[in-house]
Design goal:
Heat Shock Protein 90; alpha+beta; globular; 3 helices; 5 strands
Length: 130
């Protein structure tokens, strides 16, 4: 008998500073429901950084967040928005004193893997956390 992963959780979110706390709570609650609360701090950090980039660069704050429990592989979080512009980490080491330019460096440090892929109507930025 094989154990199936819980179904994915998907939600429409608005990438605006006033709504970020609501998204953080939703991510934490979903991971707690899956028994994956150990991954919540990294997941919340990564999702927050991705949403900050959507807010600054995507042109529309509306996006979709999906969470998948990958069993032994960890948890996957993905944010899809309508901008075709792919994020690129700032060159060189992160300037930790700068106001901007650290988000993708933080994601790379917190996630086991991360990436971006074009979609028919924009892009998806994803992270896998272990």
């Amino acid at each position: 008998m094989t154990q199936e992963s819980p179904p994915a959780a998907a939600m429409r979110v608005v990438a605006e500073p006033a709504r970020i706390a609501e998204v953080r709570r939703a991510v934490s609650e979903q991971l707690r429901a899956w028994g994956r609360e150990d991954l919540a701090p990294a997941a919340v950090l990564c999702v927050t950084e991705i949403l900050a980039n959507v807010h600054r660069h995507a042109g529309s704050p509306e996006c979709e967040l999906t969470l998948d429990d990958l069993a032994a592989e960890g948890v996957r979080a993905a944010v899809s928005d309508r901008s075709p512009v792919l994020p690129v980490p700032a060159p060189g080491p992160a300037d930790w004193a700068a106001e901007r330019g650290r988000g993708l460096h933080l994601i790379a440090a917190a996630a086991h893997r991360w990436g971006v892929r074009p979609t028919p109507d924009g892009k998806q930025v994803w992270v896998v956390l272990r």
